[in-house]
Structure formats: structure tokens, C-alpha cells
Design goal:
Layout: H1 5-16, E1 21-22, E2 25-26, H2 43-51, H3 60-65, H4 68-75, H5 86-95, H6 99-126, H7 130-151, H8 162-166, H9 175-184, H10 189-212, H11 223-232, H12 237-240
Antiparallel strand pairs: 1-2
Helix pairs in contact: 6-7, 6-10, 6-11, 7-9, 9-10
Length: 249
């Protein structure tokens, strides 16, 4: 971490001289600038660029504004050597989401699931606005995915990897197939009835997991009430009194 500029550039040069492929692993071309930068990084520089913190401790504002996929990128990937232990320490700090932050994110996503899936989807179908109905499905699925990852103490990856990662989770991975149907099936009369039943089934599965983890103490089909119950459990009054949707990103 404390290497001088000369050593840093020597390391970058050495990286460029590595074979383009070794044992099936392909080396990405060195790109010293831009969002797709590859090559040699200083550890603290990497984390500051990624999450705005050089030690893995985030402010409330950062916890609520940094997308989950960015946090996933910061803590994922195999570590081959960490003699100082600094890398592991920073990543562990990022993995330890404070309880109040967890509850705020969970409450917001549960509320979005209720509004999009239970309420607005049916309203859009009644006025025969299939495009808007599918937007409701999209919002429901997005919030449900984030909820499932939260209940697995994990961060949702970049959107194109979401379903692959969802199917590998230890808890609620069964929901992946249900969400996929919601996304790809049309909203005609036959499918809409199936979708409404499927949304109820998904909400039931989420409620069961909330009960299993003792986040709630009773089942309630109205996720808006569940969301406010979860929000009321937040210990920090400042966080608890923030808009319930503030952590949605």
C-alpha cells in the first residue's frame, strides 16, 4: 500500500507482460483510465473509487445511495494473497451492514413490493393498460430480488447476473422461477390471473422467511403494514424517521 510511484509503474509493466491466457484464465487488457480500468491498483485507491471509503466504513448517506451491485463488486472475487490482512478487513467492514440500515432497506423494498405487485398491477389491468401493468411487475420483481438478497445477508449483483445469482442463494432461491415467469409472461386474461396468484405466493414465501428470521412476529398479507412494522424496529430515531423509501436505489 505504501509503494512509491516507481514501484507502482514497474508492477503495471509486469502486469502487461503477463500471458494473455493461462490455465483457462484470460488477462484483461491494461486500461489505466475510465470505468473499465484493469491492471494494478493501490488498495485504498480502489475502495475509494468504488465506494467512497478507504476503510470500508460507510456513512448513512453512503449506505443508502451506493447501489447493491457496487457493494457486491467491492467484496466479491477471490483473494490469492493478503499478507497485511488489510484487504480482508476492508471487505469484512463492507459486508457488515448495520442492523438499522438493513431494516431500512428491507422496509423500503417490502413497501415497493406491496405498491407495485399488490396494488398498482391490479389497477393497471383493470384499465387495460398492459404496458403499465408490466412496469408494475418489473418494479415488484426488482424490489423482491433486493428483499431476497437482504434476507440472505448478501448484495444483489449487476442486473444481468441477478437471476443466475438468485438461483444460487441458500434461502428463497425457489422464487427465481416465479419471478422469471412474471417477467416473461404476457398480461392477457389467463396469465394475469396466474400472475396475481403467483404474487400472493411470493409474498407468502417472503413472509415465512421474515417469521423464520424473527424480523416480524406474525404473518400479514399486506406488505405495507409489514414494511412499517419493520421500520418501527429501527433503533436509531434519525434513521427510523427518514422516508421509508430513502434506501431504494
Amino acid at each position: 500500500e505504501s509503494i512509491d510511484e516507481k514501484t507502482f509503474f514497474q508492477l503495471e509493466k509486469a502486469y502487461r507482460q503477463l500471458p494473455k491466457e493461462f490455465l483457462g484464465y484470460k488477462r484483461k487488457s491494461n486500461n489505466p483510465v475510465g470505468g473499465q480500468r484493469h491492471g494494478v491498483f493501490r488498495m485504498k485507491e480502489y475502495f475509494v473509487n468504488k465506494v467512497g471509503s478507504d476503510d470500508g466504513f460507510l456513512t448513512i448517506k453512503q449506505w443508502f445511495s451506493i447501489p447493491d451491485y457496487v457493494l457486491a463488486e467491492a467484496i466479491n472475487g477471490e483473494v490469492f494473497l493478503d499478507e497485511s490482512g488489510m484487504l480482508s478487513k476492508i471487505r469484512n467492514n463492507l459486508m457488515q451492514m448495520p442492523d438499522d440500515i438493513f431494516l431500512k432497506k428491507l422496509a423500503g423494498n417490502l413497501l415497493m413490493m406491496e405498491q407495485a405487485g399488490h396494488y398498482n398491477y391490479k389497477r393497471c389491468l383493470k384499465r387495460l393498460d398492459n404496458a403499465a401493468a408490466q412496469l408494475c411487475i418489473y418494479e415488484f420483481v426488482q424490489s423482491c430480488i433486493k428483499t431476497v438478497f437482504l434476507l440472505n445477508n448478501s448484495y444483489a449483483p449487476y442486473y444481468k447476473w441477478t437471476f443466475k445469482a438468485l438461483r444460487k442463494l441458500k434461502k428463497l432461491s425457489i422464487i427465481a422461477d416465479l419471478l422469471e415467469f412474471l417477467m416473461v409472461a404476457t398480461n392477457d386474461e389467463s396469465n394475469s390471473n396466474v400472475k396475481e396468484d403467483m404474487i400472493e405466493n411470493i409474498i407468502s414465501l417472503i413472509n415465512d422467511e421474515l417469521l423464520t428470521q424473527c424480523i416480524v412476529d406474525h404473518y400479514h398479507s399486506d406488505l405495507e403494514k409489514v414494511a412499517h412494522h419493520v421500520n418501527d424496529k429501527i433503533q436509531d430515531a434519525e434513521i427510523r424517521n427518514l422516508d421509508i423509501l430513502i434506501a431504494i436505489n
